[in-house]
Write a structure and sequence with these properties.
The chain has helices at about 1-5, 20-30, 75-85, 100-115, 125-130, 140-155, 180-190, 195-200, 210-235, 245-260, 265, 285-295, 295-310, 310-350; strands at about 10-15, 50-55, 60-65, 90-95, 120, 165. The protein is of the alpha/beta class. The structure holds guanosine-5'-triphosphate (GTP) and magnesium ion. The site of magnesium ion has 5 residues, from helix 2. GO terms for molecular function: GTP binding; hydrolase activity.
């Protein structure tokens, strides 16, 4: 499963008018910051002049191609058309300004002909929200109005009417205003299952909804890992303390830490993170004792004896027992880590403020 995930090739492209936040978005979804090697330059318009592919820092098969902003004097449609092959992409984001321009429609027609999924994105809703007060409106009202205006335009247009629109902010602190969660749920629905799982695995946590989605994906994985552990332990060895089980479970816990951003750096400043102890080098000891408390000790002794006495019966029982103990241990760890992930997310995005 893990192998499958890291081998999935997913090619995204981001296109749209200049200065609509494309490069900023590409940095956001890869969780890279100024100074990082693959940080995409952002600016004040006409910033990205040539097509460039940016790899996900933890998975080189997931790429985001930053296309030059069109609709400016320097980047004309014909040039775009000649030098850019839209057919290679799995999904295309079309970034909008406050209005939909002919160039945007032109790209949609191209993508529809190719059968490539796409959506419109309008970024910078945080700026609109900030201005809301001056207009005597609430933040939510302003966002609603922008949505209504653009959606009316989309639904009234013969070629655009099935297109989806997402309003987002590229600023992490104000995610709670926009549609960043629904945007990625939409994309996941447009990709084949293996690709959408890979995306869920490698995307940074951009919303609490995403934490829930990651959790569901990981719970599905537990069935596989516990079956995997069971199959491995069916080689007649005492089941509970086999190094293979511990190794697998430890590896799985390490994935959770990575996916839920519970690594040392992220949790350092966050209060109330319960699973902090999992970060220590004692991970193996924690996993071993965790599994031992889940298992009923007398049962364990009995089973390991059966195992050596009657190998065939032993194999079946030991395999079953392992999956019975690994599954609850991992599910419990995962559920606890979910709450920690929410605490970390809220700490860094200030959703409570
Ligand atoms: N407040 C706010 N600023 C944003 C947001 N997205 C982008 N910006 C800012 O908008 C400016 C333009 O962003 P870029 O990411 O360079 O835009 P681009 O679409 O890549 O522009 P070109 O490369 O010229 O086509 C930068 O100053 C960004 O910091 C957002 O969601 N909120
Ligand atoms: Mg750019």
């Amino acid at each position: 499963m893990m192998m499958k995930m890291s081998n999935q090739i997913i090619k995204f492209a981001v296109t749209g008018r200049s200065c609509t936040g494309k490069s900023t978005f590409i940095n956001l979804v890869r969780d890279v910051y100024p100074g990082d090697e693959t940080f995409a330059a952002v600016g004040f318009g006409d910033c990205t002049m040539i097509q460039r592919e940016y790899m996900h820092p933890r998975n080189k098969h997931i790429t985001f191609t930053d296309l030059p902003g069109f609709g400016t004097d320097t980047v004309i449609k014909e040039k775009f058309s000649k030098s850019i092959n839209l057919s290679v992409f799995d999904f295309v984001f079309i970034f909008l300004d406050s209005v939909i321009m002919d160039d945007d429609i032109w790209v949609v027609i191209k993508l529809q002909a190719l059968g490539t999924p796409y959506c419109f994105v309008r970024s910078k809703v945080d700026i609109d929200s900030l201005n809301a007060k001056d207009m005597g409106k609430t933040k939510m009202k302003v966002v609603k109005e922008i949505r209504k205006k653009l959606e009316t335009k989309i639904s009234n247009h013969r070629l655009l009417k099935d297109s989806r629109l997402f309003l987002i902010s590229n600023k992490k602190q104000v995610f709670y205003i926009g549609d960043i969660g629904p945007l990625f749920s939409f994309i996941a629905g447009k990709l084949p299952k293996d690709k959408s799982n890979a995306l869920l695995f490698f995307l940074p946590i951009l919303s609490t909804e995403m934490i829930e989605k990651k959790l569901q994906m990981l719970l599905e994985r537990i069935n596989l890992i516990s079956v995997g552990a069971a199959v491995l332990s069916a080689i007649p060895v005492p089941f509970l303390d086999t190094p293979i089980n511990i190794f697998l479970v430890k590896k799985e816990i390490k994935y959770y830490i990575e996916i839920f951003l519970l690594d040392k750096e992220h949790v350092a400043k966050v209060p109330d993170v319960k699973k902090r102890n999992l970060l220590e080098i004692r991970l193996e000891a924690i996993v071993t004792s965790g599994l031992a408390t889940t298992a009923h000790l007398a049962m364990a002794v009995l089973l390991s004896q059966v195992d050596s006495l009657i190998p065939v019966i032993g194999i079946a029982i030991a395999a079953k027992a392992t999956s019975v103990y690994v599954r609850p241990f991992l599910s419990k760890a995962l559920l606890e880590m979910k709450y920690d992930a929410i605490a970390v997310y809220e700490h860094y995005t200030c959703t409570k403020h």
